[in-house]
Amino acid sequence: MSTGRELEQMAILEKRVTQLIASYHEVRESLDQARYVIHNLQSIIDAKDEEIKNFQNRDNISKIVNTIAAEPAHSTELKLKINEYIREIDKCIAYLRD
Questions:
Q1: pLDDT digits (tens, 9 = 90+) for 17-51
Q2: Which residues, other chains included, contact 72 with Cβ-Cβ below 8 Å and sequence gap of 6+?
Q3: Which of 2, 8, 82, 92 is packed most tightly, with the most Cβ within 10 A?
Q4: What's the whole-model pTM score?
Q5: Domain span at residue 6?
């Protein structure tokens, strides 16, 4: 008789272990998905930080140009030239990152 009861307990234990393994796999999958989302969000944050930095640099350059050039024609020309240099530098930085 005890063998039947032991088999029943083993079956219950096996069922619980199977449930635990299934739960583990679900949690593991959720964790992997969360890590993927975090990685993507971090990439977006990094890109936005870079954009903000570029805008701040352009604003600083505009301020510098306005202080250096008194005439509006020279100011515009200087801004364009500096922006061209900045674009070239950004291209170089992007090239170096790759």
A1: 999 999 999 999 999 999 999 999 999 999 888 88
A2: none
A3: 82
A4: 0.52
A5: 2-97
